[in-house]
TrEMBL record:
GO biological process, alphabetically ordered: amino acid catabolic process
The enzyme's E.C. designation: 1.4.3.-
Ligand binding (FAD): G59, A60, M61, R62, V242, E438
Co-factor requirement: FAD
Protein's UniProt keywords contain Plastid: no
InterPro entries linked to this entry: Amino_oxidase, FAD/NAD-bd_sf, Flavin_amine_oxidase, Flavin_monoamine_oxidase
Name assigned to this protein: Amine oxidase
Family: Belongs to the flavin monoamine oxidase family.
Keyword Flavoprotein on entry: yes
Domain (Amine oxidase): residue spans on this chain: 11-462
Amino acid sequence: MMQVGIVGGGIAGLYTSLLLKQQGHSVAVFESNSRVGGRIYTHYFKTSGKGHDAFFEAGAMRIPLSPLHSCVFDMVRYLNEHDLAGDKIEFIPYVLQHPNNKIYLQGRVWDATDKSLGASMGLPEGFHGKTARELLFQVMSPWIDLLSENLERGLIAVLRYDHMTFRQYLRDIAEWPDEVIDFVELVMSQTSQYDQGFTDLVLQTMHFANPEWVTVKGGLTCITDAAAKALGPSSVFRNAPVTEIHELPDGKLELVIEGIAPHKRLFDKIILALPPAAIQNIRVRPKWSFMKERAIQAIHEGPLYKMGLHFQTRFWEQTASPCFGGQTQTDLRIRWIVYPSNDLGSSDTGCLMVYAGMTDALRWSWTTRQQRVKLALEDLNTFFRHQGVDVYSQFIEAFDVHWPSEVGGGNTMYLPGQFTRFHDVMKQPEGNIYFAGEHISRHHTWVAGGIESAHQTVEQLLGGMPLPVLDFSAVD
């Protein structure tokens, strides 16, 4: 039996720990935060007195019903079997798009399916009569089909263009004018996201081709909380930042853990289930190869900003064009309005979530939370006043997370060439130190990416032995 230390209590660290424990090894998870979950983060508002509907997903929020995400469902089945108290994790449908969802551009409200929008925005005639989504998938569908047929072979083909930004591909290969690229980016993505690597954009768009989605009743935090509970308090340590890693002459590793009770622990092996930014912030650690250190320093993490606003009623479900889930794209500062898929039609309070990514997210970082709430309410009022709603009279409270300000940063979004240069380098162990996380998976930003990486890392640690997914039929 090995003693394994896992640094990081996000989904990769927790899954790694469960899998190692199932294989008979002793694990200890060290999480610097007061909560586990990392970028799975459901924020619960406490003032409603009603509880179950007053939350929003400050991190991951949805899971495609796709074979590529089957590892998430396997993990949940395992956790449901493990939880003898009966607090089962329940999936509910996630509404990615609702027929009544709108787009707000240039001071006007448009139907999300309005095919005249491109012409109204002044696009060249050859691009009229199609929605932004249809234009995007006209380019993406051949790549998605290739990846769906065989992910490994498809990825080899995609990587031929890894040196390109997605914008460069659209301009030089698909022969799109700049105004078409900007229009599709505005409606379908985040400002400046098309200046990221071609490979990541193709892989992300592949997931959004799925027609069916789910989320977790009560929030995705239910998954990570259940995982921590299954591991037990003797294996999961919160408020326990690891500040030093020392390699000892006998091959063992010493971790220095700060926090309420600073101490040292010895392990046979450790797994750094951390994003690159968090690895870089460990005060004392071994130095590795030039390219490994360069990957840790250079892997790009896309900025992400999310705010949840708690309202007295679910007024968006009570207008002339009610939205029961889905989202609204805007050219306002809030960029995206996400309507909750939980408790549809409820008479309780409810939460809207607004979010922005990339350049849009960075522009929320300059001011106080109070000012950010003020700006968000201004933009929401700009959109909803057309429907006769006064958001100010409905408002209760808000909470936000600016992910670049967190220790791990935002989600991985490779720049051109980074998949080729860094993906395999980052996966390689360094002696008895191993690495896990969505940044070294093929599915950046997704829960499944963290789990896929964790599974591969445990196989590496155990000498390359193929392992099944968590076996929910063999519960201790």
